[in-house]
Amino acid sequence: MRIRVVTAGALTRSIPEGRVDIERQDLTVRGVIEALKGKYGPTLASELLDQEGIKEGLCMLVNGRNILSLPQRYETPLRDGDEVLIALVVAGG
Amino acid sequence: MLYGYKGKLLHVDLTTRATRSIHLPGEFLGKYIGGRGLGAKLYWDLLPADVDPLGPENIFMVLSGPLSGTMAPGAGKHLIVTKSPATGGWLESYSSGRMAPEMKFAGFDGLLITGKAEHPVGLFIRDETVTFEDVTDLWGRGCFATESYAKDHFHPDCGVLSIGPAGENLLKFACVSSEFFRKAGRGGAGAVMGSKNLKLIAVKGSGGIPCADMEAVYALVSKHYRKFKASPVGSARHRYGTPLTLNITNEAGMLPTRNFSRGQFERALGRIDKDGVESVTVSDRACYACFMSCSKRTRVDDGVFKGLELEGPEYETLAMMGPNLEVDYLPAIMKANRLCDDLGMDTISAGVSIGFAMECFERGILTEKDTGGLKLRFGNYAAALKLLEMMARKRGFGAFCAQGVKAMAKTLGRDTEAFAMHSKGLEMPGYDPRAAWGASLTYAVTPRGACHRRAWPPTKEVLGDAYPFTTEGKPEIVKDLMNENGVMHTLIVCDMGGKFIPLGIRDYADYLNAVTGSNWTSGDLIERAEIIETLIRRINIREGIGAGEDVLPRRLLEECHPDGPAKGRKIGTDNFLRMREAYYLLRGWDKEGVPSRETIHKYGLEEGPNISLPEGDSD
Predict the structure, then answer these.
(1) pTM over 0.90
(2) B281, exposed or middle or buried, with CB in 10 Å at 0-12, 13-18, 19+?
(3) Count of A–B CB contacts within 8 Å?
(4) Interface residue A8 vs chain B (CB under 8 A)
(5) What's the ipTM?
(6) Which of B53, B90, B127, B246 sits at 20 to 30 Å (Cα–Cα) from A33?
(7) CB-based contacts of B223: which residues, under 8 Å, 6+ apart?
(8) Helix, strand or coil for residue B156?
(9) Which among A63, A64, A92 is the nearest to B499, CB-wise?
(10) If you average pLDDT over every residue of chain B, what do you get?
């Protein structure tokens, strides 16, 4: 399956291009994070994660839904063509 | 007298040209603080319910807060309070620039303007000297020319408020301009100025603002500047400004598209989002006393709008002039932005009104015969741009759209009110609540009408862990967010600073104490915000605006998005009404949203001191 990861104002050092496609079988949200760590290394890990999961100030949306309000959170299974947005937790204007 | 304040207001009667000072007792300021709280108490004491919003008895208030003019982050905001031509009730509208600082440098915490001038007039205030100038020559001209006149002829660094043709023509969504591209946009405050023949107000002061502990103020600013510089959130805000929001609202399915028919607009990405606006950005611009500099100066370098320059567009303008009209051509949105800014029109209400007209046109409810030949199909930005000018000058079909969607739907009938996107007569901003149900409550219960600035529940429902498609828990979220913003709007500071530096209410209490020498806690401030919200509720109840006006169009409650994250999710009228009632009860109001006697007593809202307007000749 192919998952598109898009960033909005976040991870500007590790994913400056702002989007990347992940191709794997049977991916979950956690699997996407692991794939990103594998592809971008420690820079991404330090930008995205702390000991609790994704860092305070960041959020992950799967097809527009925050993973923290999905029943399986980090273990949410993904489907081919899903989009994961990594964004800052602040917006408005 | 408390530090930070000037302890008096300036009352100007435009009919008699009398000018008088109004003393503000320390006890009064200690209770209502400033900004929103001060405005609420003045409205309650001075504006009876039968006043015509566009009559000479209405009061046009320009207010500051205890932090205004200091170095506190975001302390360059001013507040306009008046009776709204759009809703017939409470109106608070904020903008930024030098107005609040200069008022305080001149010796006043605020201006209260009543009456009506015989001719178009400009009010020039230099310290405590007030001059009235006939500005008939400026009548009909835009905000840019008007503000330039004040800067050129009075003082280059003065604070200026002005109106354009929309305000002169009494549009219900005419705004008050400051710093050229900054607007107190919502609710028609520009029409109140227009009704008074008041074209501009310019203020220049030579004083300062004594602070109780200046070193503490400086230390706080330094600490928070370092915090901002280290914050990825702050960096992103500085780089992208508000257009970053569009990428998130589109993903979450809450970007109003085609007059709120859908929540996503695929063509927005890369064209009118953060990347689109960054591609036309030439520099940053900061507000007074702010190190975020999140506003963007932009320029069009090619195409039919080549040479166009402005500050913006901000998120709301992008959303309402873009996806809401199915326009994906950024220069056209920029043109709409600049037109509205010069004509003195709120881009949110103007965009919603045009979106409503476009839907009526596509449904055959309006025809080219009605529109004077305009083909008002979604995506036709040329027609939209032409209509904006016609609206501001109330020409032809523009005069019909200039009424706003509530009145438009009432005239058209045929069930059009179902998709007339407003609450209380104020058009909705750029967030579709069907993707974050708490936002529906905010739109319904905020006192000035459909508003995103008193509370923004998507911060919990989309960016946080709250489940978005339920009404459970939302009254608590809305109340808490409203109270937090209520503190910032009372002090007055930009509520964006709190999110992006970021700062908490405790930090703002520290600023308030360092400036005034008081001993506020964050709990004290939240309690004050709670009391002020109930006072404003009493104002609207007195104006006849209660539960019957805390309502939403059927599209939001009974229709679903055809696609996107909210596909198939219906809020439902019954769910909404239960949520609204729970909110009322949380506030200490009854089931109809009327503050109970116990709540009024508990909050001391029947107690003085009260304020009255002075009479007689000038001081």
Answers:
(1) yes
(2) middle
(3) 97
(4) yes
(5) 0.95
(6) B246
(7) none
(8) coil
(9) A92
(10) 97
